[in-house]
Structures are given as C-alpha cells and as structure tokens.
Amino acid sequence: MADFSLDELTKRINELTAELNSCKKYGLVWDRDSVPEEVVLKCKTNIPLLVPVPDSNVSAGTLNNVLIEGDNYHALFCLNMVAKETVDVIYIDPPYNTGKKDLNYNDHFVRADDPFYHSSWLELMSNRLKLARELLKDGGCIFISIDDREQAQCKLLCDAVFGRQNFLCQFVRVTSGGKQDSSNFAVTHEYVICYAKRIASFKANKIRKQDDPKKYPFVDTDGRKYKTQLLRKWGDNDRREDRPNLFYPLFYSLSLGKISTTKFEASDLETFYPKRPNGSDGRWRWQIETMQANIDSGLVEFRLVKKNVEMYEKIYFDPDDVSFSPFDSVIKDSWPSGTDNLKDIFGDKTFEYAKPVDFIKLLLSMAGDKNALIMDFFAGSGTTGQAVLEMNYADGGSRRFILCTNNENNICTDVLFPRVKTVITGTRPDGTQYSEGIPANLYYFKTDFIRDEVNSEQAKYNLVEKVDALLCIAEDIFVETERNDYSSHFANGDKHLFIFNDFYNEERFSEFKQRVLTAKGTKVVYVYSSDNTVDETLFDDPSVTLKPIPSKIYEIYKEIVEDIKRGE
Which domain holds residue 310? Predict the structure, then answer.
C-alpha cells in the first residue's frame, strides 16, 4: 500500500465513513474503489470479441459445443452481446481465495494477509455474476461450489445479484476424507449455493426411481411378476366405527378354495370378519362391491393362517412405472475423485481442484431438460464438459455446453481441451483408446478486442468485420464454407448463416444475394445496418431470415460499459 500523509489518511477515513453512513444498512459492502479490476476497466475503451481457432475444432457429431479461452469476464461480456437468456443451467467452481496462489487478481495472487483479501474476491465474482445472470433463461438456475472461507460472502452477494427471493437451496457436499485446517478440525464438507433467475419460472427436476424386479417373486398366469401385500393395514383409522360400511363378512371354504362376499353352499364354510390385532372389530380395505370384483378378477389372494383368513392384494411389476422424489440437500460424495477422473485420461497428470464428474452430473440432473444449454465460466480442467457429454451418452439427450477459462499454467491447452477431445473422440492424447467416443462437436475460440472509436459509426463499421464468431454462437452454425473480404458463409446441414459487411457496394451485394438464394435450406442473413433496421424487401424468399448488424451488438456493448461506469 502506498504511503499516505496524516492529512491524506484523515481525508480518506472521512470519505470511507461518509460512504458507510450513506450505504445500505443490511447486505454486502466492500471497498470497490480500492480494488478496481483491470479486465473490466479495459472494456470501457475496447470492445471484446471472439476469434476462432479452427485448428483446435473437433468435429465428431451434430451437437455443437463451445470452448472460449481467455478471461472469463471478457467471454461473458461477448456472450451478453448475442446470447442473452439462452442458458438453462450454470455451474461454476470459482477460486476459493485461500491465500495460497489460487486467486489471481490484476495479474498478482492475493495473499491471505492482504487488507483487501475479501474485497478482491467479491469484486471479481460480482462482475461476473451480473453478466452471467443476463445469460440465464427466466427458468434457469446457477450452482456455485464454495467453501467455508467465502460461503457467507457468496450467499450475500448472490442475494444482491439474483435476489433473495430467488434462493433455491444450499447443498452440503460431504466428502470421504478431510483436510485439517488451522483450527485443528478435519474439514469434510463444502457447499453448493443454488439460485434461480426467477423462482416463479423455475421448475426443479426430481429423482426418477423404479422398483427392483427382484422384489416381485411371484409369476401370474399371464407371465407378469407380482408381489403381495396384506390387505389390512392396522392403524388408528382401521377401526370398525371409522368406516362402518367396510365391515362385512367373508365366506371361505378350504375344500373348494373359494371365498366370496356372499354365502354359498359348502360343508366347511366359515365366516370371517376383519379383526384388529387386539381382537376388536376392524375394517376391510374396499367396499363390498369392489371386494367381490377383485375376488372375481384374481387381484387378491387368500391364505389360511392360524384358522384365520388373510387377504393379500397382488402388486404387479410395471417396468414403465417410475416414481419421483426430490433431491437431498446433503450430498454424500462416494464417487471416484476428480483426480481419478483425470488419471483415466492423462495418467499421472492431475489438476488439484477437479470436481468428480459424477458430482457434476448429479447437480446438472436437478435442473434443465435433455436439451439444456449448460455453461461453466470457471471451467478449470473441463469436468462440466465431460459430465454433459456422458449424460447425453447415457440418456440420449441433446445437451450442449459453453466452457470459459483462461490458460493460466496452460490449463486450457494442456488439460481442458485434450480432456474434452478425448471424451468426444475416445482417443487419449497419447494415442491409446479411452472409450468408443461420444459424438459431438467442439468449437474453440479466444477472446480479443477492437478499439471503441470516438466516432460511433466508425466503431460500428470496424465491429461488423469482426463479429462472425459471435454470430456463429448466436445461430449455432459454425462450419465455414466460404469467405472473402466482404462476406462469409457458414453451414450446419441445411441451415446456413450468411454475413455481409459492405452493404454500400451494390455490385458486391448483388453477387452475395445470388449466393444466398442458390443455397438450399433455411438461411439467416446478416447485413450491415447502422441503426438496427433492415429492408425486408432485399430478399423475396420465405427461406431467408434477414437481420441487421452490428448496431444492436454495439448498443449492448455501450449499455454494459455504462453499468461499469456506474459501478453496477
């Protein structure tokens, strides 16, 4: 910290006192002015963009997934310009800020004795969570793994960003072993905080449970398996006086093997009434008409036990009968560790903080359907990507993912990317077989910038030449088939994306239009517009959807910059 004179310190203390007196009385407050984040400030004068890295693309299926290498704030900023309200589920495992070189803030690691230890972490998380919230659909949710050091701060921060009313659950993940902390306690847990974007629109999934066929030991005449259940279930409401109409006799003949609600001729006919264990009058389960119908259909069985008849209902096994129950807020982790998951791919190469793949699968199964778009902007070693791919393989789903990470210590190029590539292709980096592979595509991008010009029209014209990657993500069409200095063409089967950035040249546009009309299938065409309008008569073709660029993208950029300036 810089040296201050007494007058300067006094002035600063007075400023902070005034700020505290004027701020909200409940909630999270940190010294934002003392920890401005450089990656955020850079966006005030530079427009973040994405640059494709085609040599690192993986094409092995039809589902398109995205990997963005670079600061995750810049990645989130880019996605906000084209993909707001498109993400179903976000999972993140941010740095826990232990003071042990795990939080890199403004190109230096924050030490545990740093006076702005928590402020730095909060500023980093606040900047990213605000952008992440805008990417979620109304019915979407976010899961955040966190430990004791920042759990309290994280909960209050999420209350501020997502709203306290949108809090869903705080899960406790209990691990099999623990590390001893400075208080001599073995820590065997961490947390997962979960918020909805709008709780009224959120719908949680439930656990699908199916009976075990081994529990059904009997086979009926039609081949169906069944088990039996005693018809009388004793309890306070099983008394005769509670349901008098369910108290009636049954007539049974052992020699005939017959039972009925009406009396019939038999030399050994006996009469039975429902009795409670204490000998008092009880009741049958069904009314007399239903009882006789179930006797006639064979739904019930009768057994003579100690000179008394016991009635059993047949419960058939239905392989399509699935019950549902909610997820438990305490997660007992007994899966292979994240380290073991990585060793399966890399051998001895490990990533210290990797979460188990099965743990991430459990979280992702709680929200979103089989077509969900899932995002992780602290992607680390790529566990979320592997989890999504394996979930699709298991249930035939069409989930997709967006992973964002920097390349600190080559984590992206040496761990995340080869890991996801291995899961998709089934071939490890060393050439050995890992699996049969899981069909999918992966498109690799890096963050970049262009200068925001003082002249907004010039800025827009510079931007339109660099937005291809953003538009590919917006339209989920990635395969480049043609490019020149004024247009580009991407395709995905019979879906086409055309981009034209020199609208003022009529000759070039005429040639471009002909290429669009020749293409077979549905076509999205972007043309340059400085005011976010487009002439719908340019293409008289129902297969063409015409959209303007880059005015809307530039407007969103300026809106986010204004939020930065206001400290929001």
Answer: 210-316
